[in-house]
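Weekly structure sync - notes
Attendees: PM, LS, DV (DV joined late)
Agenda: review two folding runs queued last week.

Item 1: First target. Sequence and structure tokens pasted below for the record.
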Amino acid sequence: MASSRRPDVSAAAAALGVALAVALVAVWVAGAPASDAGLTGGEGHPRERLPLAVHAPALGDAALDGAARRAVEDWNRLAEGALGRPAFAWAEGPERAQVVIAVEPRQGERLMGETHLRVEDGGRIGVPVRIVLREPAPRGRTAPDVLLYQVLAHELGHALGLEHVRDPRSLMCCVPGSVDFGDPAQRQAYVEARRRPDVSTVRGQLAEHYARFWGLR
């Protein structure tokens, strides 16, 4: 909307329906109390552990179930190209899974996904990793299945050890405060990336992360 004064950033984002979930990563350092400090970029899984066994519950909706499958499949295609092996394989049940996905009722409008993990010696991520998704609801022009795909794909990145980045176009956006919603170009890039989430935007981040973690550089 045209305006002679600078728009309120939070109101503009809400009106566009593109305020990204506050995607939290709860990290435990072995033997230490829970912390919300987040990933540092030094955490990951040993090469021989991939693909990680993952389980997602049936959501009772074909579009949502399809979105969850696509999120996992898209990560696998990306990882096969970037790492030479898939990231995930479907487990028969949650008791056999190394990444357990759960869906819980919404708690407010912003929090839509959380990843709970613990970090062991050497930055090795302990398993199982638990991803909690909040029940998706339409957000502006973004349909629930697109929203679920976006949030789950983002949280799967955290399960692999990827931290937030500053690029508004990235699936792993964003470092808090890194997007200037008063800048039309940044705002538009952010909006489009949320409406059309794309796992391939983190190919470079994934490859560099595991080259470093596996000691390939």
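Item 2: Second target, run right after the first with the same settings.
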Amino acid sequence: MLTAADLSMDVGIVVNESPADEKSNFLPVFRSGSCAERGLKQYMEDEHVCIDNLVEHLGASSNFPAPGAFYGVFDGHGGTDAASFVRRNILRFIIEDSHFPICVEKAIESAFVKADYAFADDSELDISSGTTALTALIFGRTLIIANAGDCRAVLGRRGRAIEMSKDHKPICISEKLRIEKLGGVIYDGYLNGQLSVARALGDWHMKGPRGSACPLTAEPELQETNLSEEDEFLILGCDGLWDVMSSQCAVTIVRKELMLHNDAERCSRELVREALKRKTCDNVTVIVVCFSPDPPPRIEIPQFRVQRSISPEGLNLIKGHM
């Protein structure tokens, strides 16, 4: 596994340091809930996956460290073929990669590209369909978020929203520079006037020969952190949620709901309900992952006692007006 220093040297991986002690004995206990609604769209093109016990899912022979979990949201466009294919295969590509488990980060990056190529090779699928891909792989205390597209992962840390991914919109400065450097154009916020995201799997009608650099890429950006007692839950959502809600608002809603009923699935339903109430125009898919069997504790706001003192000069001034 790469060290934090090694990861910081890789422009594709961001290390998000937890404020907690690195020697913490905290080990997360995973439980999740999900909700997906078509919304105002004519078709449902989102896909998602929730695996709370990855060791059990893969089998004892996998040698995957426990506890382990895997989650993903895949926001399809131009049909469901790409999103469905990636949902079914992305974990397999990660586990079977030659870098796994020595360098999980490299395995994830490679898996996104391999999944993109494998989709293009499937003659029974519409390779002009596309999908964003947001995955969360957790083993022990290590959380690795990989993102290609405009889905978003947000960590709830004692009531604060910690964004674990960046929205890959064509108008994002870093994406705009990358696109234009590779000969692409952005028209009215769309990549080459066609696509509202700057990274996606599929969409092979917009990509060049395999292995060539092109404005639309399937390569993910990664963020990694070590979970601590302060990290209470993770929210994964497609842009149908984030188009109408801030990251902090979502964290506040989930924390409040968990304190009421401690049910991750009800939390995901509440976020979807709120997004629909706010008239989101897209499909809405949300996953809420809790890291403890217990609800979040109440946040105690320290009471500061303010002492006011008046100088002798000030006191004399007041007396002079009495």
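Discussion on item 2: The CA atoms of residues 85 and 119 lie 7 Å apart.
Action: LS to circulate a short write-up before next sync.
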